[in-house]
Amino acid sequence: MSHLEKEKQKLVARIRRIRGQVDSVEKSLGSEADCADVLMLLANIRGGINSLMAEVLEDHIRNHMMGPEKSPAPSVELAEDLIDLVRAYLK
Question: Transmembrane segments in this chain: where (predicted)?
């Protein structure tokens, strides 16, 4: 995960926004809101999750796979790790 406190706070803020969106879906379903409105809320949640996932993935690559202790030249192992991450992300 992100090693800077400021970055951690940004990620936590994103999670809280997503949680608020999920709560809105629950309220909408309970009040029998219009299906189009519920679908829009769900699309917003999916976008928020995808954005958060991309940021965490980028953070992982930068800090754990390509950090200063790693060699600058990409390796087959690094490529395989990246492929595995992307595949898991796209499931």
Answer: none
- For residues 42 and 25, the answer to whether their CB atoms sit within 8 Å is yes
- Dump pLDDT digits (tens) for 9-40: 999 999 999 999 999 999 999 998 999 999 99
Q: How confident is the model at residue 57 (pLDDT cuts 50, 70, 90)?
A: confident
Q: Render the burial of 16-50: b for 16+ CB within 10 Å, e for the rest.
A: eebeebeebbeebeeeeeeeeeeeebeeebeebee
Q: How far apart are CA 41 and CA 62, in angstroms?
A: 32
| Residues contacting residue 67 through CB under 8 Å, at least 6 positions apart | none
Q: Domain 5-90 classified CATH 2.40.50.180? A: no
- What does the block give as tokens for 28? 């909408």
DSSP SS3 for 91: coil
